[in-house]
């Protein structure tokens, strides 16, 4: 029997769930491996019997916490799908403010009635079996992940920096064009997508294990960034900080 797969979304643009739909031709390969039983963006049927739950979005309301706990209880495996679920991505930027201030900025004087808590990744609320990084996810990585899970294997991520993929592609480093880049500390796996199109890496896939943060902060400072700007580079996609919660 094929594993029963569900896709859920919390606070996010839902671009990572959409990226699965955009697999198009490859989606047929995925359907040969698993059965989708619940996925709001793609189907009307629904089921609570789930082997693998893919969940995108950060957890940013009390209701989100309750619903994620429910999903965890009904699923044998739970996979964080994309940067919002993995690092909180840009949804975590609100954690720089007090929640009363956030509500007032977004909703005005009547904001107090809305339910909001500091954004957190899934693993801060429930046990997570695997985290697929990226804003959005890399479709090839998603397909490998599904294949591995369907075969009972734990998926793996590259543990080397984006610079390695960038060098392999023969790109001119964007530091030579006056830009600043997070490639030396960011986790590879996207094929150095941004530098390959002339832009800099913002570490949307999070960091490699044990990144040399201090050394890279020094490099960014030497290239003209202030301490605050360096922090902004490090936290744009990676703002979640356990100590804030
Ligand atoms: S990680 Fe990016 S693409 Fe995916 S849901 Fe979050 S904001 Fe959207
Ligand atoms: S452009 Fe960025 S990713 Fe590429 S080599 Fe330079 S620092 Fe590394
Ligand atoms: S180059 Fe950096 S910001 Fe761009 S997709 Fe890859 S990890 Fe994300």
Number of domains: 2
- Given the structure, what is the number of helices? 10
Look up the CATH topology of the largest domain: Rossmann fold
Radius of gyration: 19 Å
Gross CATH architecture of the largest domain? 3-Layer(aba) Sandwich
State the oligomer.
single chain
- Calculate the mean pLDDT score and round it: 94
What's the SSE pattern? EHHEEHEHHEHHHHH
**Biggest pleated-sheet summary:** 5 strands, parallel
State the name of the first-level CATH class of the largest domain.
Answer: Alpha Beta
CATH homologous superfamily grouping of the largest domain: NADH:ubiquinone oxidoreductase-like, 20kDa subunit
| Beta-strand content | 5-15%
Give the strand order of the largest sheet, numbering strands 1, 2, ... along the chain: 2-1-3-4-5
Tell me the overall shape: globular
Report low-confidence residues grouped into runs of 5 or more.
Answer: none
Bound small molecules, by name, code or SMILES, are: iron/sulfur cluster
Taking the alpha carbons of the first and last residues, their distance comes to: 41 Å
Q: What structural class do you assign from the helix and strand content?
A: alpha/beta
The proportion of residues forming helix, as a percent range, comes to: 25-40%
How would you characterize the overall build of this protein?
This protein has 245 residues and is an alpha/beta fold. It folds into two domains: 4-150, NADH:ubiquinone oxidoreductase-like, 20kDa subunit (Rossmann fold, 3-Layer(aba) Sandwich), CATH 3.40.50.700; 162-237, no CATH class. It is 35% helix and 11% strand. The protein contains ten helices and five strands; from the N terminus they run βααββαβααβααααα. The chain has helices at 15-21, 25-33, 62-74, 83-87, 99-107, 139-150, 162-168, 193-196, 213-222, 227-235; strands at 4-9, 35-39, 50-56, 75-81, 130-132. Strands 2-1-3-4-5 form a five-stranded parallel β-sheet. It is globular and about 55 Å long. It binds iron/sulfur cluster (3 copies).
């Amino acid at each position: 029997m094929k594993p029963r797969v569900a896709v859920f979304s919390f606070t996010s643009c839902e671009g990572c769930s959409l990226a699965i739909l955009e697999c198009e031709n490859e989606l047929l390969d995925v359907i040969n491996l698993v059965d989708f039983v619940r996925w709001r963006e793609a189907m009307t049927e629904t089921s609570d019997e789930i082997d693998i739950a893919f969940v995108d979005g950060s957890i940013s309301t009390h209701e989100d916490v309750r619903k994620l706990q429910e999903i965890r209880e009904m699923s044998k495996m739970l996979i964080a799908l994309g940067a919002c679920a993995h690092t909180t991505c840009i949804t975590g930027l609100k954690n720089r403010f007090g929640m009363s201030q956030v509500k007032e900025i977004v909703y005005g004087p009547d904001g107090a009635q809305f339910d909001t808590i500091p954004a957190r990744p899934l693993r801060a609320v429930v046990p997570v079996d695997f985290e697929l990084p990226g804003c959005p996810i890399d479709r090839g990585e998603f397909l490998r992940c599904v294949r591995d899970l369907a075969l009972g294997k734990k998926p793996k991520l590259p543990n080397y920096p984006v610079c390695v993929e960038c060098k392999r592609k023969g790109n001119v480093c964007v530091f030579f064009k006056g830009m600043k880049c997070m490639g030396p500390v960011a986790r590879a796996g996207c094929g150095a997508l941004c530098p390959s199109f002339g832009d800099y890496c913002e570490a949307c896939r999070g960091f490699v294990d044990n990144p040399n943060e201090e050394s890279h902060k020094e490099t960014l400072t030497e290239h003209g960034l202030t301490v605050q700007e360096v922090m902004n580079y490090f936290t744009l996609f990676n703002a979640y900080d356990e100590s804030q919660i």
